[in-house]
Amino acid sequence: MKEDVQKSVEEVDAKAAAEAVKKEIEKSLTVDVDAEAIQHNEMIDGIIGKIKENQFKFYFFAPNMNTPSGGVAVLLKLARILSDQGMNTIILYEPKINQQASYQKSQEKKKQIEVYDKFNPAWIDFSLEGIEFEPMGDGKKVLTFSDDTKQVAEVVQVMPEDFIIIPEGFPNVMKKFAQINCQKIVLAQSWFYILNALNSGETWQQFGISDVITVSDAITEYLMAIMPGLNIKQFSQSIDRGLFKPPAKLTEKFPIVGFMASRGPENKLKTYNIIKTFQSFYPHLRWVRFVELAGLSKEEFADRLASCAFILYTDDIAGFGTLPLEAMACNTHVVGWNVYGGKEYVTPTNGNWTVNNDLFQTAEVLGVVIDKWLNGEFDHPAITEEYEKTLSRYTVEGEKTDFLKIINEYKNKRINELEKFKK
Question: Could you tell me the pTM of the whole model?
Answer without folding.
Answer: 0.88
